[in-house]
Design goal:
The protein is an alpha+beta fold. It folds into 2 domains: about 1-155, no CATH class; about 175-350, no CATH class. The chain has helices at about 45-50, 135-155, 250-260; strands at about 1-10, 20-25, 55-65, 70, 75, 100, 105, 110-115, 115-120, 130-135, 175, 225, 230-235, 270, 285, 290-295, 295-305, 320-335, 340-350. The strands form 8 sheets. It has a 3-stranded antiparallel beta sheet with strand order 2-1-3. β9 (about 115-120) and β10 (about 130-135) form a beta hairpin.
Length: about 350
């Protein structure tokens, strides 16, 4: 028996913006047959993040991939505590999602450095290596056919223990449709403004972005005078991250979604088949001509639409359902102030 701890390191489903999700502790054998102690180690990536104070443990998985089962006439199964086990070690499958640097560019043991993939080959009849940076369609094909399947294989190699759903026995997963294309131009999808060019130095700082208004770290308590347990505000402070009408709400999000749906810039993707829990790991990427990057995700949180909600609102949100909203975009550094601004690209609503 061995176990692994899944690290959740980002702001939304993950506390740095780049959605990192890796196995931090690797497996171990039972070293002491009397105390049943488990020996664990931190992986190489886990050590890096520990040194930066970035480890944030969220999930634990258990696996029986390093043991075996043997029948016993008396107890039903043979006692495994007397067996000899190998020490745990670092394995390639420790990574179950791609890691990126602070700029979002991917880095991997699979040959990705700063978002670029160098293809090395030795021509027939020679002993000299040649290195070529993949670009364009070659980069896209390598990403889809080699890199993405490798992460799924790493996860499967952990052989995590799970309870099979005997009632809902379909354990497959599929998307429908499995591809969506949006065409952007000077008329769409932005139709309410003639100004399509923005100076990055004039954009709001990230702590003022209303899309972060639900994140605890971006809230604050206005200062007050606590005189005889009768707190009096020191002033009229406008909270960061609010629009002119107040904090952004799920109603604002769904209304914007419906407006874009009218002009064909909102699509629905169905997960069928899927498990009843719909436990998903999502990684948004940007592929340019020669680089791979992870986009930045903001977890707006879950929103419940009460059954009593009036259908006169004429929105696509169904009363009685719960929706989980994520904003997908990119972080940029403003040259004049050396502060960050968030550029929102699109919104994902899971419901």
């Amino acid at each position: 028996m061995y176990y692994a701890i899944l690290l959740n390191n980002s702001i939304l489903p993950w506390p740095d913006f780049h959605g990192r999700c890796i196995f931090v502790f690797t497996m171990s054998g039972i070293l002491d047959s009397k105390t049943r102690a488990l020996d664990t180690i931190i992986t190489l990536e886990g050590r890096k993040q520990l040194s930066r104070g970035g480890i944030d443990i969220k999930y634990v998985t258990f696996s029986d991939g390093a043991t075996f089962y043997q029948a016993d006439i008396v107890s039903g199964s043979a006692d495994a505590t007397t067996r000899i086990y190998l020490e745990t070690s670092h394995l390639p499958q420790d990574h179950v999602t791609f890691l990126s640097d602070e700029s979002g560019r991917l880095n991997s043991d699979l040959g990705i450095i700063a978002g670029q993939i160098n293809h090395i080959e030795i021509p027939t009849g020679t002993t000299t290596e040649t290195s070529t940076t993949l670009t364009g369609t070659d980069l896209e094909a390598y990403f889809e056919d080699t890199l993405l399947p490798s992460q799924v294989e790493n996860f499967q190699k952990h052989r995590a223990i799970a309870t099979r759903d005997t009632i809902f026995d379909d354990d497959g997963f599929a998307l429908g449709p499995n591809a969506i294309t949006f065409v952007m131009n000077n008329e769409k999808p932005i139709t309410n403004s003639k100004n399509f060019i923005a100076n990055i130095n004039h954009l709001e700082n990230i702590f003022s972005d209303p899309r972060l208004s639900n994140v605890t770290n971006f809230k604050y308590l206005p200062p007050v005078n606590n005189n005889n347990n009768d707190p009096t505000p020191l002033g009229d402070y406008v909270p960061f991250g609010q629009t002119k009408s107040g904090p952004i709400s799920f109603q604002d999000i769904i209304s914007e979604h419906d407006e874009f749906a009218k002009i064909g810039y909102a699509k629905t993707i169905n997960f069928e088949p899927s498990s009843r829990d719909n436990n998903l790991v999502m990684q948004p990427f940007e592929i340019t001509n020669e680089t791979l990057s992870k986009l930045d995700v903001i977890d707006f949180g879950k929103s419940y639409v009460p059954p009593s909600t009036s259908t006169s609102l004429k929105t696509s949100a169904i009363p009685g359902n719960t929706y989980h909203t994520f904003f997908i975009g990119k972080l940029f550094v403003k040259p004049e102030t050396n502060t960050h601004t968030y550029i929102h690209l699109f919104t994902l609503i899971f419901g």
